[in-house]
Specification:
The protein is mainly alpha-helical. It is 63% helix and 5% strand. Strands 1-2 form a two-stranded antiparallel ribbon. The longest helix has 55 residues. It is elongated and about 105 Å long.
Length: 214
């Protein structure tokens, strides 16, 4: 009958848990000894039971010698880590500096190329590609800054417009409160104003001459 797969969780039954601990502990110690013999490895193993009992294994020598060796190795590694970290940081900074120098040289060369009217053969294809990317980035940044400034100016004008409208409304309310609504008289449109005069009503007087009536 095939054994079922063991579930990786705590065994609730204390008897079964103790039996499993003993079996697994013995198997772990056996595997450690086999690894030491087959591969000439130094192995130190600690196992504490649920009740605090210690089980240990030192394949070559004793446990103290293995602990001293581990402590010495840990100190050496800890002392070497800052040096290795500093060396890695130095190499990264050096690579970044070299990359920036190359970009600066290309940009300076590009400025001379543009100022000279784009003389053929002055820059390689790769250099022109790098210059093109930088120019696209600069154009995008300039346009973004321009749009930000325009948006700020539009918002400022809207704020001024709101202030002027509020001030105008306030003044209009003050005028209405002080003078009231003024009603203008109706237009005198019923009076006729003739554009011409009947000259026949007035005699034309000429000295020493007869009076002619029109």
């Amino acid at each position: 009958m095939a054994r079922g797969k063991t579930q990786m969780k705590r065994i609730e039954n204390p008897v079964h848990r103790q039996v499993t601990f003993c079996k697994r502990r013995a198997g772990l110690l056996k595997k450690a000894r086999e690894l030491s013999v087959l591969c000439d490895a130094e192995i130190g193993l600690f196992v504490f039971s649920a009740h605090g009992k210690l089980y240990e294994l030192a394949t070559n020598g004793n446990m103290k010698s293995l602990i001293d060796k581990y402590t010495k190795y840990s100190k050496e590694v800890s002392a070497e880590e800052p040096k290795e970290k500093q060396a890695n940081e130095y190499m990264e900074l050096k690579e970044e500096i070299n990359m920036l120098k190359n970009e600066i040289e290309i940009l300076q060369k590009g400025i001379r190329y543009i100022s000279g009217g784009g003389a053929p053969g002055a820059m390689t294809s790769n250099e022109l590609n790098v210059l093109e990317k930088h120019l696209e980035t600069w154009i995008y940044q300039v346009r973004s800054a321009k749009m930000d400034i325009m948006a700020q100016e539009i918002q400022l004008l809207k704020n001024k417009e709101g202030i002027l409208l509020a001030a105008n409304k306030h003044l209009q309310e003050k005028i209405d409160e002080q003078f009231g609504m003024i009603e203008l008289p109706p237009m005198l449109t019923n009076i006729e104003y003739p554009l011409t005069t009947n000259i026949n009503q007035y005699p034309l007087i000429i000295p020493n001459q007869e009076i002619y009536q029109f």
